[in-house]
Amino acid sequence: MPDIQTLLDHLNGPQREAVLENSRPLLVLAGAGSGKTRVITTKIAYAIETLQIPPYQILAVTFTNKAANEMKERVIDMLDGRSDAHEAVIRTFHSFGAWLLRRFGSEIGLEANFTIYDDEDSLSLLASCFPSQKKSDLKPVMNSISYMKDRGLGPNDRLPAVNQNDSFRSMFARYEERLAEVGNVDFADLISRSCTLLKQSEQVRSYIHRRFSMILVDEYQDTNAAQFSLLRLLVGPSTFVCVVGDDDQSIYRFRGAEVANILSFPSHFS
To answer: How buried is residue 261: exposed, middle or buried, by Cβ count under 10 Å (0-12/13-18/19+)?
Structure first.
C-alpha cells in the first residue's frame, strides 16, 4: 500500500499546503526547479488514496508528451503499483482534445477517423487551395493562420499583430473550408474544435463535468487563449481545479501563450 504520509513528509510547507487544499480553486505559483510537478503528482496520489477519488475522475494536462508520460509514471510509482493508478487521465492539451474529438466529434460533424495535420501537412493543404502560388510564398500566410487559430480566432476576427487584408482573410477562409471538406483537423483545431463541441453540446459538456471531478494543469503560464477557453469549458460547477505555473517564465509564446491567464485565474475560477 502507498504511504501517503511519507510522500507528504518529503514536501516543504508551501508544497504540502498546496497538496492538502482541495476545497476551492487553487493557483500555485512557483519558480523553475521548485518542485511544481511534484506538487501535482503528489496531489493526484493524495486525491486517489486519501480522498478516495477514482483515478479515472482525475484529469491532468501539461504541454509535452514527455512531461505527461513522466507525470503518469510518477503517479503510478507513488501509488506503489495500485492496479487502477494508470486510469488517471494525464495528457497534453492537444492529446486530450484529440481524445475528446474522436469520442464525441460526430456531434459537430467530425468523423472519428480524422487525420491530424502537422505544420507541413497544413502548408500542403493551403498550397493545394492556391496552386498558382509557390509553397514557400504561402508559408508566412500559414504561420499567420496558425497564429490566429492558436488564439481561438477565425478568418473574420481581428488581431493587430496580423496583417489581415482581404486577401489573407480569403485565404484563411478557403483553408478552413478545405480542411472541413477533407474531414481532417490541424493542430490548433484539437483545441478550438473541442471548445466548439463543448459549447454546442450540453450532453457532452455535462458528461465531462460528471466524468472529471478534479482537473489539474501543469505549466499554466504556457496556456494560450484557446487552451484557457477549453479549461473554462471543462470545469463544471463542482469540479476542483488546480493550476500550477511560473508567472516569470513562458516557453510557448510562439503558440500564443498568455501569462495573463495566471493573473486572471482568481476572477475566472472563483
So the answer is: buried
- Model pLDDT for residues 51-81, shown as the tens digit of each residue: 999 999 999 999 999 999 999 999 999 998 7
Looking at the structure, tell me whether residues 27 and 78 fall in a common domain.
yes
Regarding whether 128 and 165 lie in a shared domain, the answer is yes
Nearest-angstrom CA–CA distance, 145 and 195: 18
Buried b (16+ CB within 10 A) or exposed e, 138-152: beebbebbbbbbbbb
Phi, psi of 129 (to 5 degrees): -80, -25
Whether 78 and 129 share a structural domain: no
The answer to whether 74 and 41 are in contact (CB under 8 A) is yes
Domain containing 160: what range? 116-182
Same domain for 78 and 30: yes
Q: Mean pLDDT over all residues of the chain?
A: 90
pTM equals: 0.89
Q: Which of 225, 182, 193, 227 has the alpha carbon at shortest distance from 92?
A: 227
What are the tens digits of pLDDT across the range 19-33? 999 989 999 987 776
pLDDT higher than threshold 80 for residue 257: no
Indicate the burial class of 129 (C-beta count within 10 angstroms; 0-12, 13-18, 19 or more). middle
Residue 246 domain flag: no
40-68 burial: b if 16+ Cβ within 10 Å, else e: bbbbbbbbbbeeebebebbbbbbbeeebb
